[in-house]
Every structure is written in C-alpha cells, then in structure tokens.
Design goal:
heterodimer; A: alpha/beta; Rossmann fold; globular; B: about 325 residues; mainly alpha
C-alpha cells in the first residue's frame, strides 16, 4: 500500500524555483533514499513533506489523507516524524529527560498536570524500550548536550521513534560523522527498517551509506527529478553520474 | 532515610524550609525584623513566579511588575471598597492580574526573544500609566491608601495578622508554601516537561507535536496568576499599593533577583530575592546609592556564577528537577 504520495510539488522562493514538479511514491515498509548534489532541493522537498512550509503548487497525500495544508503538528499527529540536518535535541536535559518528554507527548499527556502511578510506569517502560532501541542504555542519565555527535543523533532518532511514526523522515542522518559513527548510524537505520519495519525516507550525501541501505533511490538535481530506481540502476545511470561529476549529460 | 541518600535538591528543599520556618527565632538576632523576612518571602514568590516563565519556559518578560501591581491594587480595592476580608482580597487580586495577563498573553505568545520582552514592557507601562493617572480611583502618584489587612477567622479562632507581625509572617509563609507547591507539581508534570522542551529547543518541540503557542500562553498566564498573588500579598504587607509596583524598574528588579539566585534552580529566585532585599535594607541605611552595590554584585554573579548563586551549589545533573 502507498503510504506517502507526493504529486508534482513545486516550491518557489521569489523567482528561484527550489523544487520543480517533483513526484514521489513511497510504499508502506519501504526504505527510500533521496540523493542529489548540493542545492538539488532535497531539504526543501523534505520540508514540504514534513510541513515545515507549504508547497507553492502540488499535493501531498499521506495515509490516504490530503495533508498539503496541514501544519507540522497535525502531520505529527497523523504519524509523521522527522529529524533534522543539524541535530535538534534538548541539550540541557538527560537522555532520559529527552525521551520522557517525547513519550509523554506521544501518549497524549502533554497538558496533564498530574499522572497516575500506572501511567508513569508505562511512560518509563516505553522510555527504557526506546533507549535500548537506539543503543543509549549506558548513557541514560548523561546530559544530551555533552554526548558525542553520533549519540546526539541517536537521541534525536529516539525522539522521533517515541511518536511511533508510520513514516520516519531522516535528513542526512550521518552528516558530520566519522567512519565509526557512520557505521553505527547505518546499522541503527537498518535495524529500524528490517526488524522494526519502519517506513523510512532519508536524505543522504554519503553514497556508500545510500547504496548499502536503500531499496529505492530518488535522485534530484537542480530542483527536478533526475532518476529513480534500485541502487544498481542508479549506479549505472549516465545522467546521475554526470550530475555528480558536474559534467553535461 | 539516611542522610547519605539525599540528593542536592532534597537537601536544598530541607534547608529552605528550616530557614523559613525558624526565621522568627533568629531574625532579630542578626539585626533583622519580621517585616523584612516577610518582604523576602513575598518578593521571593514574585521572583519564582517570573522564573516559571523565564527559567522553565525560556521567555523573558520585562513587564511582569504590571501583574504584580495589578494584584496589589486588586487586593487594595477589595479591602477598601468591598469587604474587610483578607482571603477575598488575595483571591480577587490574583484574579485581576491573572485574567488580564491571560488576555494580553493571547496577543504576545507569537513574539520571540527581544520582541517578546519589548511587548511585555509596553503592556506593563500601559498599566503603570493607568494607575498613575486615574487619580480618583487609584490615588495616582500618592498610591492607594486607606485599607488594612483584616484579621483571619479560622473556625472559632481569630488571628490578628495586622498587629502581630509574626502571625502575618506565618500566614504569608503558608500562602507561599501553597503556591510554590503548585509550581513544583506543575514543573514535574508532563505539562511542565513540555515547557522545558520549548525552552530547550522550540523546533524540536514543535516537531514532537507540541502546539507551542498554546503551551507558552498557558505558562505565561500561570506565571501572571502567581505574580499577581505575590503582588496581593505585597499590598497586605504594606497596607498600601502605589504605581511603582507596576513600573518597569520593578520588573527589572524582580528579573535581577531571579538571575542572581539562578534561573535554572527552582529555589534560586528566592535566594536572589533574599540577597537583594537584605542588601537593599542594610546598604540603604548607610548610603542612598545602594543600587550600585546590588549592581556590582549582579555583575560579579553573571561573570563568575552564570548559573546564579544557587545554581552554582546545585548538582549539575539534577538541576532541572523541581522539588515540590
């Protein structure tokens, strides 16, 4: 079943066409990568999907509902969660504190001035589960602002997972990471996809990461859709190679 | 419970309450007096109220004195025009400032950073000039006079809080305990956690699905209710309310108290208020230029203890859990 259907979206910033009539269809359970050279419009495209801003033209359908005009918070409520290129976390709270907030919000307790013992236990069990899932068990009481970049990313993914999203949007999950951290982040994403069966759309710069992870790859260049296919097809595509090497096709 | 197992927050909680409860026993011995201790508690409550918004939601208001002053005038009007009932005056004073704060809050929750601070100053000054100009009702520059706190009736008992300074102190302390207890519970709740989330990272909070404006409004309004309650107590303490209670300088002083003590520590603003009020009392008896001493202390604290006096003492890992 198609979970996310993006139809001919366009985004203009003044006279600049950042994204030009791009369509995308993501099936439930798929892991899709969006790649492209710098300035290809990947993040702009992502921001329209997650509701950071609205497209100038086009339509976005999520879980068979037209979400084009909905706010970010409303899309979150429908089951969309995202991470950012620059890690967005709660730096002066512990890992536990970070995830606790996300879990309480996800469970619908955000306006409660008080929680029963049973509900508090349910929150703390879910926090423990998430901490295990993203592999921060040994750092649960550390302040997130003091963790390594890779662990902060893992914490951010944990925040998104707390929402039990139907669609997980990851904006350059390995940006700025060393080899070891990239390896760990890739393993985490793979586990979320294969074992937890999350539907994931990610933007990635690192080709090694993309070709190792994704089943389908969408290539954007200068705001437009350039190619779409399996890693093998994309690897062999002349236009993609040209775009990346900066030569005319 | 063994003493070793107490964490920094629990120790601070115990010290705060031992000091506050025993104040009447030693305040005279150190050259103080009951009304000074009461002033510390009332202004401490005001500083903690502003800190609900500043330290735990991340929004700086420079106009909160308006709500402090509205609480003071509300209590004064009640005692003067309606009924000689202390509890009623506190309730109506709190409602006057809190409800107006809630209405203004609707207009300002979309502003951020320095714009938020500036809009709060502007609204604060509006109320200041109303109090200053509306002579027939407020007494203008001379302030609102002609009221005094009424005795408390507890069942068959009548407690004279007007002439018995110690009884009034304990009455104020009981009010302080209730309000700070509510604050502490709120900050520990899921709602309080969302406020921390907004302070820490508004974008992340939004993408967790928290409707930011609604929560900021709730925090602002609550802090206005707390603030005007403190203002109502202040009017009872002085049997007087005047326009300077609403002036932006008063807002600034309360922010200074909070920052001095430490805005990330629950009890920090109380300590800051104690330092500020005591320093003001002692130094102003020596020189009229007392503010320059407070100013120097403020600069030293900001430079060397950016987390405030109490924030410096407190255990780092536990600084955001608020003891009820």
């Amino acid at each position: 079943m198609t979970l996310l259907q993006v139809e001919n979206v366009t985004k203009n910033f003044g006279s600049l066409v950042a994204v030009d009539q791009v369509s995308l269809s993501v099936a439930e359970g798929e892991l899709r990568a969006i790649i492209g050279p710098n300035g290809a419009g990947k993040t702009t495209f992502f921001n329209m999907i997650s509701g950071f801003f609205a497209p100038t033209r086009g339509r976005i359908v999520f879980a068979e509902k037209d979400v084009t005009g909905l706010s970010a918070a409303e899309r979150v409520a429908l089951g969309m969660a995202r991470t950012f290129q620059v890690t967005e976390i709660f730096p002066e709270l512990s890992v536990h504190g970070n995830l606790q907030i996300a879990v309480e919000v996800a469970m619908g307790y955000r306006f409660r001035p008080w929680l029963s013992r049973a509900k508090r236990r349910a929150v703390s069990e879910r926090v423990d589960e998430l901490v295990g899932l993203v592999g921060l068990g040994s750092k649960i009481d550390r302040l997130v602002g003091e963790l390594s970049h890779g662990d902060q990313r893992a914490n951010e993914i944990g925040l998104a997972l707390a929402l039990k999203p139907r669609l997980l949007l990851l904006d350059e999950p390995t940006a700025g990471m060393g080899d070891q951290e990239t390896h760990e982040a890739t393993a985490l994403i793979q586990r979320l996809h294969r074992e937890e069966h999350y539907t994931i759309v990610l933007i990635e710069h690192d080709m090694k990461v993309v070709f190792g992870l994704a089943e389908h790859i969408t290539v954007l260049d200068r705001g437009a859709l350039l190619a779409e296919g399996t890693p093998a097809e994309i690897g062999a595509n002349q236009k993609v190679q040209a775009a990346y090497l900066g030569q005319p096709a | 419970m063994s003493w070793r197992r107490l964490n920094a927050n629990q120790i601070i909680l115990i010290v705060v309450w031992v000091v506050l409860l025993s104040a009447p026993a030693w305040i005279g011995g150190v050259g103080g007096y009951m009304a000074l201790a009461t002033r510390v508690v009332v202004l401490g409550l005001a500083a903690m109220s502003i800190n609900f918004l500043l330290g735990f939601t991340g929004f700086m208001s420079f106009g909160h004195a308006a709500f402090f002053g509205l609480g003071a005038y509300g209590a004064g009007f009640t005692l003067k025009l309606l009924a000689a009932n202390t509890l009623l005056s506190l309730l109506l004073g709190m409602l006057l400032g809190g409800v107006l704060g809630g209405l203004l809050g609707l207009l300002i929750v979309r502003r951020r950073g320095v714009y938020f601070a500036m809009v709060t100053i502007a609204f604060g000054q509006v109320f200041y000039f109303i109090a200053y100009r509306w002579n027939s009702l407020t007494g203008g520059d001379d302030g609102l006079r002609g009221f005094e706190r009424a005795p408390l009736n507890v069942g068959p008992l009548t407690i004279d809080i007007l002439n018995n300074a110690q009884a009034f102190y304990y009455f104020v302390l009981a009010c302080f305990a209730v309000v700070t207890g509510i604050m502490g519970l709120l900050l520990r709740s899921p709602f309080g956690h969302t406020l921390l989330a907004i302070r820490e990272n508004e974008r992340r909070a939004r993408f967790l699905g928290i409707p930011i404006e609604r929560h900021v409004w709730a925090s602002f309004t609550l802090s206005c209710f707390f603030m005007s309650f403190a203002g109502a107590l202040y009017a009872l303490l002085n049997n007087f309310a005047d326009p300077s209670n609403l002036y932006y300088v008063m807002s600034g002083n309360i922010v200074i108290m909070a920052v001095l003590g430490g805005i990330r520590a629950f009890w920090g603003p109380l300590l800051g208020a104690a330092v500020f009020v005591v320093l003001q009392d002692y130094v102003s008896s020596v020189t009229t230029n007392w503010m320059s001493f407070v100013g120097m202390l403020f600069i030293l604290v900001v430079l060397f203890f950016p987390r405030g006096l109490l924030g410096f003492v407190q255990n780092r890992g536990q600084r955001d859990t608020a003891p009820g």
